[in-house]
TrEMBL record:
InterPro entries: AB_hydrolase (IPR050471), AB_hydrolase_1 (IPR000073), AB_hydrolase_fold (IPR029058)
Signal peptide: none
Naturally occurring in which organism (per UniProt): Streptomyces lunalinharesii
Domain AB hydrolase-1: 28-141
Pfam families assigned to the protein according to its UniProt record, in alphabetical order: Abhydrolase_1
Domain of life: Bacteria
Protein name in UniProt: Alpha/beta hydrolase
Upper lineage: Bacteria, Bacillati, Actinomycetota, Actinomycetes, Kitasatosporales
GO-annotated molecular function: hydrolase activity
Keyword annotations of the record: Hydrolase
Keyword Hydrolase: yes
Length: 281
């Protein structure tokens, strides 16, 4: 097992925000874009292994954790988050294109980054990006987002999260119970920060990101740089479906990683090994 190392940390001023970022290792740049409320810490369990062959950069997306917004009430847009990622590439790898991994909402950012700045990206791996607008039943999921927001306003965070979780489950039903998984210590330790960021995620990220419609024609032209990945336990669930559909549409391989949508958290060692392989292939 790779010995943990302390990353070099920094701050990057971007339009409307200040980003906290962390860097480890040497080699070609690999930018890891977290999903949900994970932030840079979501990759703590895999970053050192990836840093044996790459310069690994992680960061807290704007509005999350240590990345502060000038205006805390600002609407969040995928294009703006993708520009943040581009600014990090310009800072950390100005002379060479980078490799990028995005999980969940971070996968949406990675897809937009590829279509907007293809000259800066040589390979993109996305794990279950919930681009539900590509699905034939997209209208059903627009209604889900409206219900989540209405529930958040009228009843608060936890009922809204329950509504959201039910909508992500197979066939939009009640989420099936999963086998109990003991979280690694690093994941358990960041639970407090994750909970603190949940209101911002539900109110700002979920509606802005899950209504995003990718440029499919542009993605098709760049699909030789794309790797789609899904959780082995996610089959039939909403976040799985867009990646599976796009992989089939573009003729790309669909890779399966351990666990479900949060396999990076529940199975970090196995997930990290497959990610390492995916970005190096």
């Amino acid at each position: 097992m790779t010995t943990p190392t302390l990353p070099t940390t920094g701050e990057l001023r971007v339009d409307g925000a200040t980003l906290h970022y962390e860097v480890r290792g040497r080699g070609p740049l690999l930018l890891l874009i977290p999903g949900g409320t994970g932030g840079a810490a979501a990759f703590d369990a895999v970053a050192d292994e990836l840093a044996t062959t790459h310069t690994v950069a992680t960061y807290d997306p704007r509005g999350m954790s240590r990345s502060t917004l000038d205006d805390p009430e600002a609407e969040q847009r995928v294009a703006e988050h993708a520009d943040d990622a581009f600014r990090l590439l310009e800072l950390l790898s100005p002379d060479a294109p980078a490799r990028v991994f995005g999980a969940s909402s971070g996968g949406i950012v990675a897809l937009h980054l590829l279509t907007a700045r293809p000259e800066r990206v040589e390979r993109v791996v996305v794990h279950e990006p919930p681009v539900v607008e590509v699905l034939p039943d997209a209208a059903v999921h627009r209604a889900l987002l409206a219900r989540v927001q209405a529930t958040f306003r009228s009843e608060g965070l936890l009922p809204a999260m329950a509504e959201f979780a039910a909508g992500l489950a197979k066939d939009g039903g009640t989420a099936a119970p999963r086998a109990e998984v003991e979280l690694p210590p690093q994941a358990a330790a960041r639970a407090e920060r994750t909970m603190a960021d949940l209101p911002f995620f539900v109110r700002r990220i979920v509606p802005g990101f899950m209504s995003y419609a990718p440029d499919l024609e542009r993605l098709a032209a760049l699909s030789d740089r794309l790797v789609f990945a899904c959780g082995q336990d996610s089959r039939g669930e909403l976040p799985y479906r867009p990646a599976a559909l796009l992989a089939e549409r573009f003729g790309c391989e669909l890779r399966h990683f351990p666990g479900g949508h949060t396999g990076l958290t529940t199975h970090p060692v196995e997930f990290g090994a497959l990610l390492h392989q995916a970005v190096r292939d």
